[in-house]
Amino acid sequence: MSKKLALIAFVVSLGGFLFGFDAGIISGVMSYASPEFQLTELQEGWVVSSPSFAAMIAMLFSGRLSDIFGRKKILLIVAFLYALSALLSAVANSYEVLYIARMIGGLAFGAALVLAPMYIAEISTSKNRGKLVAIQQLNIVLGFFAAFLSNYFFNKYNTPESSFLTDENVWRYMLGVELIPALLYFFFLFFVPKSPRWLYVKNKPEEAKRVLIQIHGKITADEEIATIEKNSSHELTKSKVSFKELLKPGLKFLFLVGLVIGILQQITGINAVYFYATSIFKQTGIGTDAAFSSGILLSSVSVIFTIISMYLIDKTGRRSLLLVGTFGIAFSLILCAYGFQKATYQLTTEKINNLNFENSSKLLTIENTVFTNDLDFKNAAKSALGLAVYQKNDGAILEAATNINATLVLIGILGFIACFAFSLGPVMWVLLSEIYPIKYRGLAIGIIAFINSLISSLVQLIFPWELSNFGNALTFFIFGFIALIGFFVMLKIVPETKGKSLEEIEQEFVKA
């Protein structure tokens, strides 16, 4: 694999880094923005999830637009939207401006998540396609790592003695720093070539050959050209594609496979855990500072296991990684549920007196009461303090009251993140970029990504409500049970595609 090929794949998938950064940064932002704008739980959920709703629109149309105008042109628009979103988010003066700015970013990452794996698959060879497409997932988790690290330092230096960072402005800097990588992404995209397989479909074989030689060198390029030309004439004679064609016997099974994996990737709650990581760790009673630093640990695990996935995906195959990872996800989530189920909550007089915020004495109304679940305790604390005061100080309150095996919950969450990072995270995008013929690829991936984003946004939207109404234990158990069902479904239907060219995959799985 040439260094040029790896570099191109890395640049194209920087949209994934920005998605990960945005998703990770918001978990720290809401600790400050929510009290400032006095948001309800549903409003907080909407600020977090609104980019995913916008992403659905982008995912539905970006693939088809890239079929018409080219992958590169649409990616340049994506980078511009990322930069605009970061700028507007940082200067938002109301709840409405904040979620609209984030929806602009949602349009960007919706398109980026569809186009990057598609483009990378089209410039890769069968020997390295898996690991190259997985670079997008690596960039996503690197974005999470950068976001949690950024949040940690912003939170650390936001002290009462600081005149630069305050509770009122620190979240603006958290969001605004995303402008830097967004502008770099926009700049580097100008040096990326057009997709050679897209050029063939557009009847530009000479330009496609030049790009392949530029990327791979003449020997490998000649092999790729021979493989593509066997199939390109057939692609060019096809009529305009429509959704109905994806439901024809030749494609229906592959569309079902993509749909199942696309739904399962998000319905197990991965983005709820990422987006609300700081809040979740607060639930364990480890405190606000420890919650922010635990986010760094979480993102570090993501990076490590994504790299492991990149090493294994072209060796062990896509199917085995998916199955092992999904079973591990189910086990880890159920372990979290068990840990939360065993927790108790109690505020003694001494602990209440040690709480250092205004009106903390109102908690004396529930002193020495033992609560056997987080739901009853949080409702009692909110009733005593009021929602706004509780939201601003929930980390300190839960740290004082919680008696839980925090290590067990942390192991469960990190296990979930690790299993996701080497299975559903990268493998879904690899499979989607492989199993559909190029003529249908933009449409099929766009529809599946649309549904994937819909599930993601719904999970994010209702997650705060679930924690408030179902409690931590039942919420995590539901996610774990869904993952277990998904394991058995994938055991039945998921094919193996490793070591095959895109054209060979089409001949094997797509029936006339």
Automatic annotation (TrEMBL):
Belongs to the major facilitator superfamily. Sugar transporter (TC 2.A.1.1) family. It comes from the Bacteria. It is found in: Membrane. Keywords: Membrane, Transmembrane, Transmembrane helix, Transport. This is MFS transporter. InterPro entries: MFS_dom, MFS_sugar_transport-like, MFS_trans_sf, Myo-inositol_Transporter, Sugar/inositol_transpt, Sugar_transporter_CS. NCBIfam families: SP. Its main location: membrane. One of its GO terms (cellular component) is membrane. It is a multi-pass membrane protein. GO terms for molecular function: transmembrane transporter activity. Residues 8-498 form the Major facilitator superfamily (MFS) profile domain.
